[in-house]
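STRUCTURE REQUEST FORM
Protein name: Cysteine desulfurase family protein, VC1184 subfamily
Source organism: Raineyella antarctica
Requested output: structure tokens
Priority: standard
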Amino acid sequence: MSYDVDAVRQHFPALRSGTAHFDGPGGSQTPAVVAEAVARTLTSSIANRGTVTAAERLAEQTVVAARAAMGDLLGTDPDTVIFGRSMTANTMELARTLARCHGWGPADEVVVSSLDHDANIRPWVLAAEAVGATVRWAHVDPDTAELPLDAVTEVLSERTRLVAVTAASNLVGTRPDLHGIIAAAHAAGALVHVDAVHLAAHASVDREQLGADLVSCSPYKFFGPHLGVTAGRAELLEQLRPDKLLPSTDRVPERFELGTLPYELLAGTTAAVDFLAGLAGVAGMAEPADAAGNRATGPLPRRRRLLASYAAIEEHEDRLRAQAEAGLRGIDGITVHSRAVRRTPTLLFTLDGVDPQVVYRLLATRGINAPASHFYAWECSHRLGLGAAGGVRVGMAPYTTAEEVDRLLEGVAEVAAARWVARDGGRRTAGRTAPRHALDFVLRKT
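Status: completed
Returned output:
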């Protein structure tokens, strides 16, 4: 049975505008059920968590439901799910807490990767620098955009205290060998923090099966509201003593959560996970069968439905990625920098001699949202030779259509086949040297 993308799109009010959204890696569009869950919670009788009044009980139920939902999504015990303002904020606090509670010092080392978003680099670098620990770098291969396993293993030693690595690059989509990296890190006696922000929008994550000590993500990448979520190994979380207010609870995971939780955003997160779990059914895909080929007649556990939805999403998005890659590689002057063997449906490209911001703005005039930047993958962009400018990023989502990919390719082909001229103080300059700040572009066909 084919993936019914039109049925999926009916749930996203923003798509009615006709804009082709290839900006999902920066944050997905939101289904109506998520917005409704947020609004319903805000307008319900709700109070601080407790058991005396109905309002208190609703708050408690909202938190418990959100932990259960994220536990299912990340393959972890719900009682190890921590909510925060953002993944960046969570990781900053975690890094400081780990360094202090585990006694990092000048004899210790931390490993970070140049494939990662800076949110999984800078917190660890800053925490290491604060105690005099050494930072070791595992570098991405600029020719393949891969993070080879040996790039990590060669910088591991008995001094390594933590390895921070992404599950998938938000810039070029590369999916490194997480199992190999985690096994090698643990063999060296190190902890592992996995940034699953980008991957969780495209493929299933299983913290327990991976053996990751800590995993972080952001619901707004997979249809939810703006929050940060971190899940950890229970024994590790019990060891840590984060800075907190004196009267606040010392229970895990609450000891890591500063202040009152945003109940409306937690409700939206639960709704997003439930929507994602039902996506295979929405798209008209068959329910998953067990090992014997039998299909369930009753409701399936949410984790199993999530796995079915992710399988449907991957099949749909990989088909679109192949379409986009083939089209982009056929356009003169285009370089596609997403080259890893295993990657998400996220493509980064540049057009020879043209500032990526120019390409971005011109596509935007055609109703195509494909932003240009380094997208905070600062180290990766520089390792690929793209510097601070980065490239144009094209991200497929469960609601992306083949027709939208065709529109994108037509738009890129038009830009590539054109010569851009900018007015600069009354003097017109050929496109290859057009200043980045020039906003008044005139398209001149070659």
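Reviewer notes: Confidence is low (pLDDT under 50) at residues 419-446. The chain is about 35% helix and 15% strand.
Form closed.
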